Amino acid sequence: xxxxxxxxxxxxxxxxxxxxxxxxxxxxxxxxxxxxxxxxxxxxxxxxxxxxxxxxxxxxxxxxxxxxxxxxxxxxxxxxxxxxxxxxxxxxxxxxxxxxxxxxxxxxxxxxxxxxxxxxxxxxxxxxxxxxxxxxxxxxxxxxxxxxxxxxxxxx
Length: 156
Hints:
Blueprint: H1 3-10, E1 19-22, H2 29-34, E2 40-45, E3 61-65, E4 78-84, H3 94-104, E5 105-115, H4 118-134, E6 138-144, E7 147-153
Parallel strand pairs: 1-2, 1-4, 2-3, 4-5
Antiparallel strand pairs: 5-7, 6-7
GO biological process, one term: methylation
Pfam families: Methyltransf_11
Keywords: Methyltransferase, Transferase
């Protein structure tokens, strides 16, 4: 089992039969794996230059070039939004991306922020958790080796 398969299976309750968004998807490795379980998966990034060829073989997976800080999805479109190994790449747009992810979630939706990268883990501790606390969001964090995750509820 690959690392991405392990983490997708760990969060099946938030993926299986759900409408999933992967923001800042990079190669879309998470999206490809999640598409085996989800009702639909939409993955977005600023470019398609890193996209895996296997994306084309997933009938319920849609890739779009889109800025995660300014999505054109309607509010309440997705059950789950995922940021997989992407947090450190967001830079100054991090808070805006989190706000956009919350906006496009349904009222009972969750954000899954998942990373095995040290640089992401630092950003999670230094920037994400203080943002969540300032905004009084409900969240939990944990580890599924080698991953650190933060699960953020829109409403609870």
